[in-house]
Amino acid sequence: MLKPVTRRSFGFVAGAAVIGVTANGYAQDDPNAPKPKPVPVEAPFERDYEPPSFPLTWKKPQINRQLVQDFVLFAHSDLDMVKKLLEREPALINAFVDWGGGDWESALGGASHMGRKDIVEFLLSRSARIDIFCAAMMGQLEAVKAFLTLQPALIDARGPHGFSLHFHAQVGEEQAAATLEYLQSVKQVELKPVPFLKKK
Fold it and tell me: What is the pTM for the complete model shown?
């Protein structure tokens, strides 16, 4: 049975609505109010086709999503934490995060577009799967040429966050100078300054 609404309770509810008080006690227009942390949201999906006939099996638990995200984020800049988390969970080595809209990134991808050769070398020593973006940053010219000979369309490929092959060679600095020159000979692009390189 519903309780009758009193004048006092109605006044409280109406007053809260007027000033925009949220559940955490802050007014909605309060600039000092803590902003909600972003959380991953899976896009809605419903099959409009027959499901695969291949049998689905889940033999082991998936790696925790938060752990994967932390590992990939630390791989941008913190070698010690990368080592610590990889020792805790070796299967992280080739784990990927979808940051949204299919923006897939692994620890190797993050370290590569940040030009962190030390982190890349460590990950490769632990059997991370090298790709053309990593090869470009590390100045592996022959590997980059081989990739592009096999599939010329890769010259326009984009890595995590949309970073190009040219960008990866650019953050490789002197070690990747010949690779960047080669990529420019295949396709000339405007090279913009990379702000974080000055801070390294």
Answer: 0.80
